[in-house]
Predict the 3D structure of the following.
Amino acid sequence: MAAASLAGLLLLALLLAPEFGESAQIRTLDDGGTYIPTRVWFVEDGNDLIVRSERDSSWLARLRARPAGDIVRPGKRDDFRARFIESRSEVNAWNRRFREKYGVLDVSRQLRRAILPSQPWVMVRLSPPPGLPRYRR
């Protein structure tokens, strides 16, 4: 009985982990010019934010088509330009930073990805557009 309860709790944690932790709302533009919001985890790197996604996500497809948008965090809204991080070693380094920041939540997300079919993470650097001040605090 106790083992079944523990297994159930572990499964629940694996499924819900992406819903917790510090997050921001990235807003990407669809073909009609409408902002579509998506909640993402992020890691700060100076003035930039690093976000990640699975390769086949719809918000990532919108960002590839139009590499700009805005990101909303509590009390802040900033425009950004996106640059995809292609280097596998950089992606691995950023995965370590996500693991450091989100701890067990990130570990559970990685476990869920190991159980369910998934593709490698895609990392994206969000930077303030040239000529604009850094992300506002």
